[in-house]
Amino acid sequence: MLKQFCLIFFILLIATKIFAQNNVEFTKENFPNDAAGLKAAQMNILDGNDFYIERKGGYNLALNYYLKASAFNPDNAQLNYKIGICYLNGIQKDKAYDFLQKSFSLNKNIADDIHFQLGCALQNSLRFDEAIEEFIIYKNINKNEMQKVEVENKANKRIDECKNGFELVNTTVKGKIINIKNINSEYPDYCPLISTDEKVLIFTSRRSTTTGGQRDDEDLEFYEDIFISRKTDSVWSAPENIGPPINTKYHDATVGLSPNGQELYIYKSENGGDIYLCKLKGDKWSEPFALPSPINSKFKESSASISSDGNTLYFISDRDIKTGRDIYYSIKDKNGKWGAAEKLSDIVNTPYDEEGVFIHPDNKTLYFSSKGHKTIGGYDVFSTVLQPDSIWSEPKNLGFPINTPDDDVYFTMSGSGLHGYFSSVRTEGEGEKDIYLIDFTEAESPTGITNLTIVTGVVKDSASGLPIESEIEITDNSKNELVAMFTSNSSTGEYLVSLPSGKNYGITVKSKNYMFHSENFDIPESAAFSEVTLNINLNKMNVGSKTILRNIFFDYASDSIKTESIAELENVYNLLNENPNMRIEISGHTDNQSSLETNTKLSSARAKAVANYLVIKGIAANRLESKGYAFSQSVASNDTEDGRKKNRRVEFKILSK
Description:
It is built from 11 helices and 34 strands. A hairpin with a 5-residue loop joins strand 8 (263-268) and strand 9.
């Protein structure tokens, strides 16, 4: 019996030696018959080590050398560990686990953090149960009392992320994620910025064609350059380098874009990292200029987004050394000066880093990425909504598969709320980071209905049809406050304005030597997204030229002017003040819903009321004539309510100048 037991034990011992994995070092003893192959492998390891110690961009370069050495000897624990780390820090994270696991099987003491790295690899593969087990082992085997708190916090953070992953992966966002392949390259492409109407996309890339062609010594990647693409028939054009004066031989990166695409905010590494502004004049971008304090500081400002009215700038700064990168905002006063930088509340900011802030043109929905809140790993994209009491709502994770265990950052949403654009590191990507589109056309957007109207069009000379550069003023009629000012493009005459729901807006278009043009948009608070095309033809300021005053309002069947009309009346007053020899006729018009006598009396009284306002303001009465035309000069059919509404109006006409 004893002999049989010894025989079985001997057989098991031999089998264990045959099938056990042994750590094979790169030595002559292990490879006595291939000195040349051994030397080449050793050189590849040394070359790889030069890049490996640089971290970040060096991992990808190191991997190329390590894989060559691994082809010669796949059974070295240290080499497998380093290959696993390289994969874990690249786009092919799904390959990391096998190499790390093999490294551990070859040498159980290969590295103090081997269980942490195994956990990270499993987390990235959505194997959350197994990842938690590895993080617990990592936490429990730590023997260094000096590092105990740090190790526990590090492991517990990952464990929490895995628990969040269980919840979020099981409640996936119903949207189609698309890699925009004709935008992306084999290099990192990220921070996409879009105009509200999705006609322009501007982004950052670290391609080999970067201006100057140099690499950054810190991460061995090419310097950042800014590229632009335009959409035609739903297809993005091949990206073009935006060129000078924006791009230089150093870092130039996208930060934010005004909703109309006319102002570009960029990042430059000067002064620790500052935000610069460029303005589009025709088809040329201006020289970038640094934003003033209190926005820029001696610390790093890395991301920014401007509200649709141009008056509030949200940005990222690490000026608070206790909490790292946080979201701040600054409000511009009536003189165009930026106010003190205020940090958003702890409802939004966390003890971890925030990045990639974007305020939607509705001026109430803020998107940002964070390593805090309920992230499932790295940066996740969150949204928060400004409530009527000016408190931000609890941030909501946009969910899987927008968010993954890796970095998902720089999220922007189209004005319609149907398309989101963001940067992500994914296995199927073209480069280290790629730009993705998520299409909600056949699904509900994670932030619900978009309460926004965008108005686009071209401003032209009514006689020649040529485009005009003009000032566009947006007024909140209920408050008689100027809420925003924009300029149409000087080359194309194109303009875009964003009107969040819930206000009665007056739009005034002005250009030197032209009659001003007015439009009214009274948008209920519950109004969903709408896109309006409105081409505007301006009339030269000649005798006989007319302007319809669409923002003068009266009480029903009355000549009593509503207070919402003051901004429009002031436009007429200012025009007469600037042209002291001008005489005008103010005319009232009605629909045909009552008798000619009644409507003539009403239209005359309304025209007279406007003239009286101007006289009280100081305009000489002999410069004004007022007449009522009832429904004799209709501009639309009186058979529909929409037509009758257009016919109920006040105009003015130049009699002499």
